[in-house]
From TrEMBL:
GO cellular component, one term: cytosol
Organism of derivation: Microbacterium ginsengiterrae
Record-given protein name: NAD(P)H dehydrogenase (Quinone)
Taxonomic lineage of the native organism: Bacteria, Bacillati, Actinomycetota, Actinomycetes, Micrococcales
UniProt family annotation: Belongs to the NAD(P)H dehydrogenase (quinone) family.
E.C. numbers: 1.6.5.2
Domain Flavodoxin-like fold as annotated: residue spans: 9-207
Pfam families noted in UniProt: Flavodoxin_2
SUPFAM superfamilies: Flavoproteins (SSF52218)
InterPro entries in alphabetical order: Flavodoxin_fold (IPR003680), Flavoprotein-like_sf (IPR029039), NAD(P)H_dehydrogenase_qn (IPR051545)
Keywords attached to this entry: Oxidoreductase
Protein's UniProt keywords contain Mitochondrion: no
A GO molecular-function descriptor: NAD(P)H dehydrogenase (quinone) activity
Length: 271
C-alpha cells in the first residue's frame, strides 16, 4: 500500500470478546500492516473498551419520567447540537470526524452484527451528525448528501458457513445482500463509499492462518483504491418522492440488487 504525502487516518472498530481469536489476530496484524504503510489507525475495540451498547435517556443529558418522556431521536439530536452527549460517545464522534476510512470487523452472529456493535451505531450515529437534517442548513443528510461523503468503509467479517453458501445461489444469500442493512442502510446511507465486504467462511475450520491473513492484508491494501459498490444516489431522478425506484430504471426487476447501479466514474476518493 503506497503512502501519500498526507497520511490518511483509519478508524478500526472491532467487536469480538476474545483477543486471541481469529478476529483478534487479524485485527492485530491488520493494524500493524496499515501502520507499517505509514497510515494512522484509530482503534475502538468495543469489548476491550467495555462499551455500553444501550441507548438511554442519559445520552440526551436528562432522565425521562412521567412528565418528561424520552424522545430518542429528537432529544439526542439536541444533545449533540449542544455538546451534551456522554464523554464515551463524544470520543467516538471525534474519531469518526478524523477518519478517512472506517473498518468494521466482527463475527457474523445470527446473520448480523454482535449486539455491542449494533449499540455502537445506535449511540454514535445520531441525528444531526450521521443522518437527519443538517443543524445549520437544513439539508437532508442521506446517501449522496450524507455527512460522511468521501469516507470509505470496509466490512470484514468471519462466519461459520461454507464459502459457497454465501454465493449467488447459496443458502445464506449472496454476501452483499446478506449485509444489505449495514452496507446500504447504514454506511451508504450516511454517505460513505462502501467497498465489497471481506469475509472468511468456515472460520472455525481454517487450515492455514497465514493464508487467511495474507488474503486479508491484500484487501487492506486496496482500501483507498478499490472501486466501491455503486449504490444508486437518491436525489438525482432514479427514485420517486416516495423513495421507490422509478419505473424506467431496470423495469420489471425487483430485489435488493436493483439498488446497485453502474460503476462510478472519477470518484473523489478524499473528503
Amino acid at each position: 500500500m503506497p503512502c501519500t504525502d498526507e497520511a490518511r487516518t483509519i478508524l478500526w472498530v472491532s467487536a469480538h470478546p476474545e483477543p486471541r481469536s481469529l478476529t483478534g489476530s487479524l485485527r492485530r496484524d491488520g493494524i500493524a500492516h496499515l501502520r507499517g504503510a505509514g497510515l494512522a489507525v484509530l482503534e475502538s475495540d468495543l469489548y476491550g473498551m467495555d462499551w455500553d451498547p444501550v441507548m438511554r435517556p442519559r445520552d440526551a443529558g436528562h432522565e425521562a419520567g412521567p412528565s418528561s418522556p424520552f424522545r430518542a431521536t429528537a432529544d439526542i439530536r439536541l444533545a449533540y447540537i449542544e455538546g451534551r452527549q456522554p464523554s464515551d460517545v463524544q470520543a467516538e464522534l471525534a474519531k469518526l470526524r478524523r477518519a478517512d476510512a472506517l473498518i468494521l470487523q466482527f463475527p457474523l452472529w445470527w446473520y448480523g452484527m454482535p449486539s455491542i456493535l449494533k449499540g455502537w451505531f445506535d449511540r454514535v450515529f445520531v441525528s444531526g451528525f450521521a443522518f437527519g437534517k443538517h443543524p445549520g442548513t437544513g439539508r437532508r443528510l442521506r446517501f449522496e448528501q450524507g455527512p460522511f461523503r468521501g469516507k470509505r468503509a470496509l466490512v470484514a467479517t468471519t462466519l461459520g458457513d461454507r464459502p459457497r453458501s454465501i454465493g449467488p445461489r447459496g443458502k445464506s444469500g449472496e454476501l452483499t445482500e446478506l449485509l444489505f442493512p449495514l452496507l446500504h442502510g447504514t454506511l451508504a446511507y450516511t454517505g460513505m463509499s462502501v467497498l465489497s465486504p471481506w469475509a472468511q467462511a468456515s472460520a472455525d475450520r481454517i487450515e492455514s492462518y497465514d493464508t487467511v491473513r495474507d488474503g486479508f492484508l491484500r484487501r487492506l491494501d486496496g482500501l483507498f483504491t478499490d472501486e466501491p459498490i455503486p449504490y444508486r444516489p437518491q436525489f438525482t431522478g432514479e427514485y420517486t418522492s416516495e423513495w421507490e425506484l422509478e419505473d424506467h430504471v431496470v423495469p420489471g426487476e425487483t430485489g435488493l440488487s436493483i439498488h446497485v447501479g453502474d460503476a462510478p466514474r472519477g470518484e473523489d476518493r478524499r473528503p
